[in-house]
Amino acid sequence: MVAKIAVICFCIALLELSVFPERADALPSGSRWAEWTTIGRGVKWLQNCDFPGYDIKFEYIPLEQCSKSCIDTSGCNAFRWFDGWCYLKNIPAWALDRVPSPRGSCGFLPWEFSATGFIS
Asked: Which of 53, 32, 57 shows the shortest CA–CA distance to 44?
């Protein structure tokens, strides 16, 4: 019985890694991230996008300060800036998928994702 459970768990883990290849090391990689611009300190940033949900804090600040605010905020691993508002987020790695938006920008801190898929 224990052997069957171990085999089933192993198969599920292999399935998850094949369906969600980013989960292998929990860091976004591959061609879908090629369009992202890397700015100071290694932050990934893109115009006209959003990461819906997972907000932990929001503040009215200039675009240039949004990524720094995320870096300086415990628990923040991604952000969205729209019309002067910076939305700080804590997104599990498996949910780090942008949604196109006609305005605003979004970004994430690649080093803030742990092997479990949540912020370290």
From this structure: 32
* Phi, psi (degrees; rounded to nearest 5) at 98: -75, 155
HSE (side-chain half, CA atoms, 13 Å) at 7: 4
pLDDT tens figures, 30-50: 555 667 888 887 888 999 999
- Over residues 82-100, the mean pLDDT reads 91
Q: What is the pLDDT of residues 62-85, one digit of tens each?
A: 998 999 999 999 999 999 999 999
In whole angstroms, what is the distance from residue 55 CA to residue 90 CA? 7
Quick check: 115 and 26 in contact, CB under 8 A?
yes
Per the listing, tokens 């292999």 go with 14
Domains of the chain, each with CATH number or no CATH: 26-112 (3.50.4.10)
Residue with tokens 């691993």: 77
What is the average pLDDT across 19-24?
37
CA distance 69 to 34: 24
Closest CA to 93 of 79, 75, 78, 71: 78
